[in-house]
Design goal:
There is one protein chain. By secondary structure, this protein is an alpha/beta fold. The protein is built from 15 helices and 14 strands. The strands form two sheets. Strands 3-4-2-1-5-6-7-8 form an eight-stranded mixed beta sheet, sandwiched between helices. A six-stranded parallel beta sheet has the order 11-10-9-12-13-14, with helices on both faces. It is globular, with a radius of gyration of 21 Å. The two termini are 22 Å apart.
Length: 389
Amino acid sequence: MRIALLTTDNRDHQRCYGETVPRFGPAIEAILSGLSERPELEVHVISCTQKPMRAPAKLSENTWFHLLHVPKIGWLRTGYQGCVRAVRRKLRELQPDIVHGQGTERECAISAVLSGFPNVVTVHGNMGQVAKSLRAPIGSFLWLTARLETFALRRAGGVFCNSAYTEELVRKNNAQTWRVPNALRPAFFDTPLRLRVRSEKPILLNVGGIIPYKRQLELLEMAEQLNREGDLFEIVFVSPPPGRSAYARAFQERLAGLGGRGFARVVTPGNLDELMELYDRASALIHVSMEESFGLVVAEALSRNLKFFGVRTGGVPDIAEGVEGAELFALEDEKSLISAISRWLESSAPLPKTAAQEMRMRYHPDVIAAQHVGIYREVISQGPGPRLN
């Protein structure tokens, strides 16, 4: 089976044009790892870039990489038409059995559905819901992306939904859906769990960019209340460097205003090893996002046997259901969340013992890759459909 997988090379939008190794998101890294273990597959990864970059011809024994240069005019301002055309030309050369557009955030989904080949789309982030939650202004990036998402979903041969929440949102635009969670990167399963040394001040993690719908400012305010009430802990916000948005500035000002109280800080890990060390030194993850299609960081934390406190939004309940040490609360019920954290701290911050094994059974790359291949075969068996010249 020949698969064309359309995804973003994050070197492009992170402006890291001098690097020579592609940067993919965690979910893409994980599924590529799973697919690479299946020698019967021929996988072609296709990404677009606004500036030429060096890139390897192959990512693994059965996985090729194709980086397509598309001038700036061919991106969002023209509905990604330059990307669509460049991808279509490459696909005519490759003649894949199926095209998989990874994500509706940029050009991947729309390029897949306009490819002229049997196709599926994965929704990683529900852009329509993000735009709605943040009241995105007309003409803004999020407003435009939400509309392109709807266009792509309605034309896709089927949609991979990473949670029940995503599936419910997608069904109004496409009746052909499959529930397929994101995989975790192999390191979360292959790296032995480190023996944690109990500390007088347990470390609480929050992982994600400092942006409004992730609600780090609100979480910092909750942590201040716990600190005032005498609970001993340290909260570590694991994030890329905070940007210049009004929300990020407000968060940084609040953090600076804590002065010498020293119970909160921001850390930016340089690589996966450093991120995993942060997980393995911590005792709990707190995740209070108002919009979350899946909640990959929740599964990552549970795969390292961390305690989890979160809110019932998006796909997070799918991950937490039936897992030892996972507690969920209503988004608006901050009082109950704070009380639960306080009780846990007072009881010496016990850790789960079985969460890691549960995550392995659900989200190992081999498990998720097998689901992908089964769906690909189903779509291919339905026939080629109309092809574009």
